[in-house]
Design a protein that fits this description.
The protein is α/β, with parallel strands linked by helices and 297 residues long. It has 12 helices and 8 strands. The chain has helices spanning 16-27, 34-44, 60-65, 67-77, 92-101, 120-131, 149-166, 190-196, 208-213, 219-224, 253-264, 280-294; strands at residues 52-55, 81-84, 105-110, 135-138, 172-176, 202-205, 231-234, 268-271. Strands 6-5-4-3-2-1-8-7 form an 8-stranded parallel β-sheet. Helix 8 links the parallel strand 5 (172-176) and strand 6 (202-205). Helix 7 (149-166) packs parallel to helix 8 (190-196). The longest helix has 18 residues, at 149-166. The radius of gyration is 18 Å and the shape is globular.
């Protein structure tokens, strides 16, 4: 989900030399560490492409009006899974039935920090077990967790502790960036403070569009933190069209997906669209079609 920050990149989308570097890195995919290759294969199966899910925040108003109908429509488009950002007053059992009825998996839940703390954690684990979800991703942090460099260090330590607590249940915790993570604190970007001080069991859910809005080229982060981009948010960025759909903006998707395959350890690509030139359901349908037409995933 977007923070709606207005930061902008100083160059057009991905830098040309960064894209070239990605092509070189991707050509060495077989040189990725064995653990990364195994994790990547476990996520998609031998010989299969990395599957594509949809962040339901993209169609949140449709979900409010008719969640079962919206989930069914998303499945008919060809998405393989959904990532929840709210449950619309449904129980885990009700949500799981909707997924099963439409042949969908759950590729993640965006869950508030408070749901992972104290007695709430056991309830969150049980809820997600019923959903069949193993990716517990925090979509944003209250100010006290990100107000300073030290706060980010403390937050990284907390995520490491949470990762150990959910590991016996076959789950991972993670964090999803907006743009505030790319404003330096004490000479270091908070994204680096967080990712550099968390274990490989903490998902780096890189949101491409949000990162570029924050003023950085997100592509090098896939290589800087290998095997950590277990799920990623596929969101377009355009300097000239704030309603651009995936494939219609400035992002070098070829380089991005190549690095996801080579070193990212990516198990799910998750489409998220938050600006609308058409009705939201039509937008996410077009996004999926554009991805397929690009033949990159």
């Amino acid at each position: 989900m977007s923070s709606r920050d207005t930061g902008s990149v100083s160059r057009r989308g991905f830098l040309a030399n960064s894209a070239a570097a990605a092509a070189v890195l991707a050509s060495g995919a077989n040189a990725a560490p064995r653990e990364q290759r195994q994790r990547r294969q476990a996520g998609r199966g031998r010989g299969r492409r990395t599957p594509i899910g949809l962040q339901l925040y993209s169609v949140r108003e449709d979900c409010k009006r008719d969640l079962p109908g919206t989930v069914a429509t998303v499945a008919k488009m060809g998405y393989g899974a959904v990532e929840f950002a709210g449950y619309y007053d449904r129980s885990a059992t009700q949500l799981r039935k909707m997924l099963d009825d439409n042949g969908l998996a759950c590729c993640g839940t965006h869950t508030g920090m408070d749901t992972l703390l104290g007695d709430n954690l056991a309830r969150t684990i049980e809820f997600n077990k019923i959903l069949g979800n193993k990716y517990l991703v925090v979509p944003g942090l209250p100010e006290k967790y990100r107000s300073s460099h030290q706060a980010w260090l403390d937050t990284a330590k907390l995520f490491n502790e949470l990762a150990e607590k959910v590991k016996p249940h076959g789950m991972l915790v993670g964090y999803h960036n907006h743009s505030v993570e790319f404003t330096a604190m004490d000479g270091e970007l908070p994204w680096d403070t967080f990712c550099g001080n968390t274990s490989k069991d903490v998902i780096m859910q890189l949101d491409v569009g949000n990162a570029i809005h924050g003023g950085v080229d997100p592509l090098p982060y896939l290589y800087k933190y290998p095997g950590r981009a277990i799920t990623v948010h596929v969101k377009e960025f355009s300097k000239t069209n704030d309603k651009a759909l995936i494939g219609e903006g400035d992002v070098n998707w070829r380089a991005f997906f190549a690095l996801c395959r080579a070193v990212g350890g990516t198990e799910w690509y998750i489409v998220e669209q938050e600006s609308y030139a058409y009705p939201p359901l039509e937008c996410v349908d077009r996004c999926l079609k554009n991805l397929r037409e690009m033949r990159l995933v």
